[in-house]
Specification:
It is built from 12 helices and 13 strands. With about 350 residues, the chain is an alpha+beta fold. Strand 4 and strand 5 form a beta hairpin. The longest helix has about 35 residues.
């Protein structure tokens, strides 16, 4: 007949998380891995039900109850922290000597390996737990690598899209971006003002001080336009010294005239460069989306362009609103048109 010592030696190799309890419910022996989970606990002589709390079957309160569950799955956990969840199965020892209980971590194995710093040596050689952990770790690593790659690809895509819609010299939006904004506003039925601005005397700066000075002037002009508009507005460089501003919800012509006046005043401020002083001005033309029954992006751009060149013909450093026939008469007037647009022109909210 096998002695207790022989049984524990064999069990320690085959199932290192075993516990043997006597007929009174005291732990006679515990496997090496089970002891590793509570290294400061004196296992031998400790009552099984003071170390573990059985949640299922709920009726188990004694060794006799344990023996009656032979072959059934037990659900239990440590009473102290960390309250690691365990699964187990019990089989009675011969001649009423108690019970042999084999334990495992079940689905809590990942947390257990982390909490108790377990290695492959802590599991039975035939236990596939470690191999499964390696697979889980490999899968997690692969998923993390895939996630990082996706983030990098997404970042590269965003950067490429941003670059495709950005004027590299000024950092403003470019014509392509402006076209997208116009299409979005028109398709959504939103109302807006469109202002076309051209720098006056910019060619003289390029001709007399060079393109580097011209670039500095363009960058300063871009800063001024951003400062004079809202964050929700669109400022785009659409040509060498041409800019378009799209002001969503701004339909008050007096307010638009004031914005244009402030822009021109700011742009006339001298721009220092390399010990020299660059001086420019600006002309601007504005139209409103509400001045067309069915707004059309190309027609709005054409109206603003017509108003801009009317301002230039009037002596530059001026702002004009678009009027019907303006391209024929060439007249410049900063007041809003009265007859060339629908009577129900709406002002922007204050």
């Amino acid at each position: 007949m096998m002695t207790l010592q022989q049984l524990t030696q064999m069990a320690g190799v085959i199932c290192p998380m075993y516990a043997i309890v006597d007929a009174k419910g005291r732990i006679v022996s515990a496997g090496p891995t089970l002891k590793k989970l509570r290294p400061r606990l004196t296992w031998e002589g400790r009552r099984f039900f003071r170390v573990f709390d059985l949640s299922r079957p709920r009726s188990v309160r004694s060794v006799e109850d344990l023996e009656r569950t032979a072959g059934s799955k037990l659900h239990l956990q440590f009473r102290d922290t960390p309250q690691t969840g365990l699964k187990g199965v019990c089989t009675p020892l011969p001649d009423g000597q108690g019970a042999f209980i084999n334990l495992s971590f079940g689905i809590s194995v990942l947390e257990a390996v982390r909490d108790y710093d377990l290695t492959s040596a802590d599991f039975s050689p035939t236990d596939l737990t470690i191999e499964m952990l390696y697979l889980v770790e490999a899968k997690s690593a692969a998923m993390e690598a895939s996630r990082q790659l996706n983030l990098r690809l997404q970042g590269a895509k965003i950067a490429a899209e941003e670059q495709a819609f950005t004027d590299t010299l000024t950092g403003l939006k470019n014509r392509r971006a402006m076209d997208h904004v116009l299409a979005r506003l028109i398709n959504s039925g939103r109302e807006f003002a469109l202002m076309h601005l051209d720098l006056d005397f910019f060619k003289q700066v390029n001709d007399t001080l060079g393109h580097a000075a011209g670039d500095a002037v363009l960058q300063q002009a871009a800063r001024v336009m951003v400062e004079c508009t809202r964050q929700s507005d669109t400022v785009a460089r659409v040509g060498g010294d041409e800019f378009v501003m799209i002001l969503e919800g701004v339909l008050d012509t007096a307010r638009l005239a004031a914005i244009a006046k402030r822009l021109i005043q700011r742009l006339e401020e001298p721009v220092p460069f390399g010990g020299q002083t660059c001086r420019i001005s600006a002309s601007a033309g504005t139209t409103l989306s509400t001045w067309q029954k069915v707004p059309d992006a190309q027609e709005l751009l054409n109206q603003a362009d017509v108003a801009l060149y009317a301002a230039k013909r009037a002596g530059r450093a001026q702002h004009c609103f678009y009027r019907e026939g303006m391209d024929k008469t060439g007249g410049a007037d900063d007041s809003p048109p009265a007859s060339s647009r629908p009577a129900e022109v709406r002002g922007s909210p204050s």
